[in-house]
Each structure stands twice: as structure tokens, then as C-alpha cells.
């Protein structure tokens, strides 16, 4: 078990002091807490009704015992500002489902001895008040973070338009598709109503829908059939059962960390080295395209794996945009920012993939596609935004 760090980081210390000073000088009695639980780091943040966010605690945790200890430390710090006054609302985001009301399973925590199961009753009661603490899935929180940027008119500072629709957005309401490729493939929807200027986040499991293959006369048909027949679905890896190859691959089987590795193993020859880390594959692919602007992505298994990964991300974006008649698609997450050199090198091919659909004219007329180009912790923003607005919802 890892122990939470002590608060000796100068940046964190300055945040604590700034939070104290803002509360005291402005006599601010109402505040909100947002807790972003990642697979490695947990960040505890505070904010007032409006204004900046203060990250006053950060610690390492990969099991709930360490998490509880870190949150107790955060509560101790909070008491130096507010003594016994709880926040109006606390919002916590985790990787995993949040449909239960008492126990929450964090999918990227250590599962040994239920070390991944957060029990609501075990949370420190001042910083996480019993009746006003809310749990969000991490992609859901990221969607609220995006809403926060949009409402503050900051989204253009963090996203680049890769595709811009040809006609003006029609008034009334809009649908945004949000996709985040990481360990898995997160997918969510945002519905915006113009009249009330309300944004409604709809968490989904659309990363698990089946891949739509191309038709038999498509130039990529033979290659694709061979690929889709060779990649092992995740359900087979998890369950050695009689379900073998009964179902299509899910998009997440390719658009994920494990999908990148599986694609690399599919494309590599007997002389290529074994790589079981998607980060190494991505780094190699980026290096190859950065060092040679005319590099042929078909000539290396790392670039082929990354190209396949993004081709299917853009295909899912296409399918959801058509099916939902989405006005906007946002591809979010640090991986989009980190892998920007590769994505930009193959941008034309990815845009072609996005439009490769019978309803191409819909996509060109109705949908804009935005790619995150600058890092921002959307989950962190989302927890505070949700805590601030939950009483109005």
C-alpha cells in the first residue's frame, strides 16, 4: 500500500494560502469541493460560487485505504479554513460505473481484497457530506468540464477544428458527441437547449458498440476483413468460453490502449521486437513521422497500429455524428494532445475516413469536428462545475 504524500509541494502550499485568503478577505461562506480520482493521482479542489479553482491537495493512491487516508488529510487542511463547515456540494469522479448509491467500483484501482471498492460511508464526512456528495463517471465529468469551457467561452483555447460544417448551426438545440480514447474508449453526449442555455450531459457506453465494416466493393474490404478476424475481442480475453468469435469487435477493442498493442502485434513481422506498451508504440510512431515528413505509415508496425487506432476512432465519430445528427464532435483527452504530431501527419487520411459514409453530405453540412490541442484537466473542471450547478438541476 502506498502512503499519501505530505503537503510539502510549494505550488500546493500556495494554493492553500490563496484559498484561505480568498475565503477570509471576501467573507465567502459557501464553497464547493471537487475530487478527481485518477488511477495514480487524486486531486482535491475547492471553488466558490464563481471564480478560480484551488487545487489544495494532491496525493498518490491506487487502493481505497490510501484514498481514505488522503481524503482525511485534505479534510484536515480544509478545517484550517472552515473549521466545521461542510461544502454546499462535493462531486467525485471515478473510472467505473456510478449507478449504485453506496459502493463504487473503481476500475483502474488495485482489485486485491476489494481495494477498488469505495464505500460512501467511509468517506470523511466534512469534506464529503453524506447528503450532498455526488459521484460521476470520469468521462461524464470530462463532459461537464467541456461544458464549463464552452460557457466560459474558453473552448477555442483548447480545441482545434479539424472539420468545419458548411452551414450555420440551426437554432433550437444541438447535440455534441464526446469521445475520449485512453485505457478504454469513453463516449458521452451533451444536449444543448438554446432557449434556456442549458447543457444536459448524457453518459453512455457507446465505446462498446460494434464496429461497422466497409462494404464488399470498398477498396479496404479485404484488408479490413483480415484485420477484424484476427484481433481478439476483449470478451474472449476475459472469458475463455463458447462465445468465441460469435460477435463483432467493439470499437473499444481497437480504440484503446490494449487495441493499439493488439494492432501492433497484428502488423509486426517476425523480426520486429515485441512491444506490450501502447505508450512506446505511440512514441515510436510520432518519432518516425516527425523525423521524415514523407514517411510511409504503411512501412512500420507502430505507425500502422496508430493509424488503425485513429481510423476507427474517426469512424465511430462518423457513425455517432450521422446517427445523432450531431452538430459537433469533440475528441478529448491528454492522448489527443500527446499524439498530435502523429494525428496531424495523417490528418488528411483521417478526414477522408470521417466522410467515408453514404450520408457524407450530412456530415459536411451539419457537423464540426474538434480535436483537443492543449492540455486541461477536464475531469477536474467537471467536478467543480457539477458541484456548483447540481442544486440548480
From TrEMBL:
<dbReference type="InterPro" id="IPR043129">
    <property type="entry name" value="ATPase_NBD"/>
</dbReference>
<keyword id="KW-0808">Transferase</keyword>
<dbReference type="Pfam" id="PF02685">
    <property type="entry name" value="Glucokinase"/>
</dbReference>
<dbReference type="GO" id="GO:0005524">
    <property type="term" value="F:ATP binding"/>
</dbReference>
<dbReference type="GO" id="GO:0006096">
    <property type="term" value="P:glycolytic process"/>
</dbReference>
<keyword id="KW-0418">Kinase</keyword>
<dbReference type="InterPro" id="IPR003836">
    <property type="entry name" value="Glucokinase"/>
</dbReference>
<dbReference type="GO" id="GO:0005536">
    <property type="term" value="F:D-glucose binding"/>
</dbReference>
<dbReference type="GO" id="GO:0004340">
    <property type="term" value="F:glucokinase activity"/>
</dbReference>
<protein>
    <recommendedName>
        <fullName>Glucokinase</fullName>
    </recommendedName>
</protein>
